[in-house]
Amino acid sequence: MTDTATAARRPGEQALSALGLGAPALDPADASTHTFPDGGRWRTEIPSCEGPEALAVILKESSRLDVPIHRISQGSGVWMLTDAEITEMVEATAERDIELCLFTGPRGTWDIGGSVRSDSRGGGLRARGHDAVAGCMEDAVRATELGVKCLLVADEGVLWTLHRARTSGIIPADTTLKVSALIGPVNPAAYAVYEKLGADSLNVPSDLTLDHLTEIRRVSAAPMDMYIEAPDDLGGYIRMYEVAELIRRGAPLYLKFGLSKAPGIYPWGTHLRDVTLDTARERVRRGRLALDLLARHGADGDMAALGTRLPGSLNRFPTETATA
What we know:
globular, single chain
């Protein structure tokens, strides 16, 4: 880990210190000691890419603004895309050596269960019943057969099932499994359990404090995903000025460039075309703003190499003792 990775990079701090208003020194013990396999401490992700047309917009804008992208993810689900659309997205991302991540299967918010519409929100996005788990497996098999290498998951049982599927050869062994922000763990014990269930990358809610990230990093090296700007339905939090400290505490970290004050687009269809393309373009611009901020404060080093996608060695529950 380089010295710059653990150094303080707080916007405005130099000017405030000159006025006698400097903040206390950061504690080096708070810094994460973990990295991606190549030694990089952060990667980038553009979420909510709902089809080939949105993908083309993102790729064009990323080239125009020089925004490096490690992963592009989709939220509506595999079932909302035709085989031809998935293939087109796989081929386009492969040309740029970008990981494509598609959401799996049925989720509670879209089925007939009423509890998710209660004040408590019930089971949320989890897969309700055997058939929903089967639907997620159907999506996983179909997507990976078409070349998708990363699957987004919103249920602990589905996560464990897909992990067992890749260890048994039902889906490719190098498939990566990403936990959705909508069920993201909020404490170190839960984070460690998700890792053991097969998670290769875990979205955490964007309202976790810096101390929470340090607590998680003391028990797990599994890559973390965090919205630097969260959609409104996830709180609308904007943490751009903390991005260097988020990396220092949370590495290895995916910087997710979401968008607040934007309409929801899940499940996507052509009736939402204009807003989908406009927001896709703006997410890339938000990424440029965050990267510029990092650069201004000398904290833009230690990015993982483009084209890297695997998480490194992680802790898992043994699958050989699992029952059907």
